[in-house]
Amino acid sequence: MRSSARRSGRGRRAATVGAVLAALVGVLATTSSAQAQGEWWEPTNPPAVESEVNVTGAPFTGTTSTGDVRGYIDAHTHMFSDEGFGGHAVCGATFSHAGVADALKDCDGHGVSLLENLTNSAKGAGPLDSHDTTGWPTFPEWPSYSSFTHQQMYYKWVERAWRGGQRVMVNDLVSNTGLCTILGIVAGPNEAPCDDMDAVRREARKTYELQDYVDAQYGGAGKGWFRVVTTPQQARSVIEQGKLAVVLGVEVSEPFGCKQVLGVAQCNKGDIDRGLDELKSLGVSSMFLCHKFDNALCGVRYDAGTTGLIVNVGQFLTTGTWWNPQPCKPGETPDNTVIGGVIPKELSVIPGLPALLPVYPTGPHCNPRGLSDLGEYALKGMMQRNMMVELDHMSAKAADRAFDVMEAGGYPGALSSHSWLAGTSTERLYQLGGFATQYGHSTGEYVADWQATRALRQKYGVGYGFGMDMNGFGGTPAPPADDTEKITYPFTSADGGAVLDRQRTGQRVWDYNVEGVAHYGMVPDWIESLRRKAGSAITDDLMAGAQSYLDTWTASATWAPGLNLARGSTASASSTEWTLLGRLKPSQAVDGSLSTRWASAWGSDSEWLRVDLATPRQVSRVTIDWEDAYASRYRVETSLDGSTWSAGATVTASNGGSDAVRIPTRSARFVRVVSEKRATKYGISIRELGVFS
Q1: What 3 state SS string does 443-511 have?
Q2: Which residue intervals of the chain bear CATH 2.60.120.260?
Q3: Which of 316, 333, 359, 627 is the most exposed place for a label (fewest CB within 10 A)?
């Protein structure tokens, strides 16, 4: 460990000289700002000493000739991770009222960081090796593209990204109870509680505090460039003004306390309702139902490799259960392959932790946990509150069920923000009206993925974006792999309105060609690298990203559940399974409750359920919530008289769960579902049948 209090006399003298130089840099920056008085994008009351932005030119404003907004979107990043994980994981603050020297100072107790050494593969350090924690003004080792545990989102660096063309940033409020617990043991006492919702509240408060801090530099409330938005209308207005629209999301492992311990849920529906209402009051617009751990709401898509090993340990510490990957069955989408084996000796100090992880079967692995009943309740609660649903990190089984539910309701608010959606589900997302972005990979990989998915985006007419996941322990783009990815300084932003030179903070100057995306201020440099590699087509797609995100958000915000014409109607069936209390009658498939159901007699493939709408109505969509006994092949038919039936649609490969079936819009009084092939040895059983105009 190395802190400023333990430096030698020579180190103190060097730091003093550095501080003097930094002060001179600050004076020059202040003078330059004073010369630019009257330009709305320049602060009128900046701190005396501050990081430079190194961008000249006015930010673009307004809309295109078609009324669309323009600008890049980062749909997944973590501006205040330093407030999460117990306060140990990320060294350095996003801002400080005491100034840059305080925000980006040396980190006491961070010289030997197990998390840093296990994740920073580029450095190649041993688990207990030390690293230089010196920050302002020299920054000898951080921030770096390969270092996950040092602040990369200081607010002036975010300002440079905005000046370079970014117009939307989704700030995901983040924490993880397991990692927090581990760090509290191996890195000293935590500075904050490990409760996920406590971290969400702290990070939300800090986001609004930063907005006020920036406003004060620009002359008062509402005048700064950093604008927290809670509706798509607010976001559009902010973007049209040329400012940065900051959207709040949530990515935690145990939302609302919804963990599972030994497989038993630790929350109930009341906790979920109160939690969702609180998030809405904080201004949160999107959320992950599960993240890293199998919780009470859903199973997760596993992490692979060493990261997966650490996360699996965290799951065990907080839930008492390890991940339970099973070999994937034919046709199933894998959830990444999990490693077992010996737990690193550095973690052996954790009380109650066994020496070995479970021995897992040969991959590819699938998580048998899907979306639980509580998870489905939470998902529908998000829909009722018009919140966008993040599908990344869900197991393939959970994501499939989430799609079923959203498709049944025609809900467009589906997001995949950083390349974690399993399999080929992206088209289902676009069909709903959702929005997807790719992880902020290094230039070559990002361009390859952009090219591979471009035809699908063109099919649905959507723009592109990135999920940089900065401060999220995933890593940022590495330096250019070859000359085709290198950039020349100064360069002009893709919109043509700004000129950017190498970014300088204190005595440190960063060059993308040497250091990749070391911090958030270098995102425009990376975009210039993408342009050099793939031409203006890629930046055109990125500039369309903000509008596509607003399209999804607007559709979600204005969504209302359609009138279910079948609710409470007269229902009949080909047969009914006998029970002593008669609880499986046809009427129980149209009573509005998923806890009741109709079931046919056992043994026949040709069973049907029919509803009478009382009068002819326009019908275009039928939804079916199956019980475990479902029909793998069935028909949806309509009739005006109950005798002559017209074909609506045939489903040939249902996998149960929730089905949403589109039929040609027509007038019908009667609608029925006719089984052609059972999926089980029993009959067929429907929890709820819906009919919609």
Answers
A1: HHHHHHHHHHHHHHHHHHCCCCCEECCCCCCCCCCCCCCCHHHCCCCCEECCCCCCEECCEEECCEEEC
A2: 570-692
A3: 359
Single out the residue of 491, 584, 484, 488 nearest to residue 532, CA to CA: 484
Phi, psi of 268, rounded to the nearest 5 degrees: -135, 180
User: Which range among 25-39, 277-291, 422-436 shows the weakest confidence by mean pLDDT?
Assistant: 25-39
Which residue carries 């209302």 as its tokens?
560
Residue 461 in contact with residue 489, Cβ under 8 Å?
no
Residue with the two structure tokens 């066994």: 354
User: CA-to-CA distance for 478 and 512, rounded, in angstroms?
Assistant: 9
Q: What is the pLDDT of residues 145-175, one digit of tens each?
A: 988 889 999 999 999 999 999 999 999 999 9
Q: What is the Cα–Cα distance from 85 to 78, expressed in whole angstroms?
A: 12
Bridging pattern class, strands 326-327 and 166-175: unpaired
Other Cβ atoms less than 10 A from the Cβ of 243: the count is 22
> What's the CA gap between 181 and 251, in Å, rounded?
17
Q: Helix-strand-coil percent breakdown of the chain, rounded to 5?
A: 35, 20, 45
Compute the chain's Rg from CA coordinates. Answer: 27
| CATH 3.20.20.140, the chain: domain bounds | 72-317+369-558
pLDDT at 7 exceeding the cut of 70: no
**Tokens, residue 197:** 């919702």
d(CA 355, CA 346): 11
Q: Which ranges of 410-442 would DSSP assign to H, the alpha helix?
A: 426-432
Q: Per this entry, what is the length of the chain?
A: 693
> Quick one: pLDDT at residue 24?
39
- Look at residues 159, 177, 179 and name the one whose alpha carbon lies nearest to residue 169: 159
In this predicted model, what pLDDT tens digit does every residue of 507-519 receive, in sequence order?
999 999 999 999 9
Q: Which fold has domain 72-317+369-558?
A: TIM Barrel (3.20.20)
For domain 570-692, the CATH architecture is Sandwich (2.60)
Helix (H, G, I), strand (E, B) or coil at 551: helix
